[in-house]
Design a protein that fits this description.
- With about 50 residues, the protein is an alpha+beta fold.
- It is built from 1 helix and 3 strands; from the N terminus they run E-E-H-E.
- Strands 2-1-3 form a 3-stranded antiparallel sheet, covered by helices on one side.
- It is elongated, with a radius of gyration of 13 Å.
- Bound molecules: zinc ion.
Amino acid sequence: MAPRKRPRLYHAVCRECALERVFDSEDAADAFVARHVEETTHTALAERVD
Ligand SMILES: [Zn+2]
C-alpha cells in the first residue's frame, strides 16, 4: 500500500458575496483573494484547510 500524501489546501472565501474557491497553493489563494479585493473592495480571505 502506498502512503497517500494529502496536499495542503487553501480555502479562499469572501465575506460579502458567494465567492468561494479551493487552491492547493497558498500563493494562488492569496493572489485570488488579493485580486477579488482589488476588483470589488469586498472583504475576502484565504485560510488553510487541514
Ligand atoms: Zn466578494
